[in-house]
Amino acid sequence: MSKRTYLYSPWRMEYILGEKKAACVFCHARDSANDEENLVLHRAEHSYIIMNRYPYNNGHLLIVPYAHQMNINDLKPEAFTEMSNLVRILERVLKAAYNCDGINIGMNLGSAAGAGIEAHLHLHMVPRWRGDSNFMGVVAGERVIPEAFETTYKKLQKELLRQL
Ligand SMILES: [Zn+2]
Q: So which residues are the catalytic ones?
């Protein structure tokens, strides 16, 4: 019998439960006019950058294509190219704004791969510092986010404008 470790953190649970209310949170943020309230930092031609409301770490960002698609191959090639270009920009932004030692970059395609919202693909960028908690090994009940969303939003937006 294989031994499995289940991760639990309260804000992730809130995320899972919250997901059932809205049809698609990424389409909602795309269509909404209030970017700051939705934590949308930047709108590009085919995709946008949004702060993760349930972050693994300070400055956890998502690059989300406007198109509601599950697979990379369902996106227009130029949309995926733009996402890659945004990764390059955000690498600079996160290093400049947070002086991080590393960055986790990745996508979970499909729920089997760990996608919380599998119907609308998105790319994670999570800044990391030496000695911070392991990416997936968040200790139960312990929030690792010492900074307010509002502060993070302003800091990242300012740096984005500098780097774009
Ligand atoms: Zn969607």
A: 122
Distance from the alpha carbon of residue 15 to the mean position of ligand 1, in angstroms: 16
Residues 71 and 130: their CA atoms lie apart, in Å, by 33
| CA 75 – CA 34 distance, rounded (Å) | 25
Cα 69-138-61 angle, rounded to 5 deg: 40
Mean per-residue pLDDT, 119-125: 97
Q: Quote the ligand 1 centre to 5 CA distance (angstroms).
A: 30
Cα–ligand 1 centroid distance for 117 (angstroms): 9
pLDDT tens-digit map of 98-121: 999 999 999 999 999 989 899 999
Superfamily per CATH, domain 10-163: HIT-like (3.30.428.10)
* Ordered strands of the 123-128 beta sheet: 40-43, 47-51, 61-65, 123-128, 102-106
Q: What is the pTM of this model?
A: 0.80
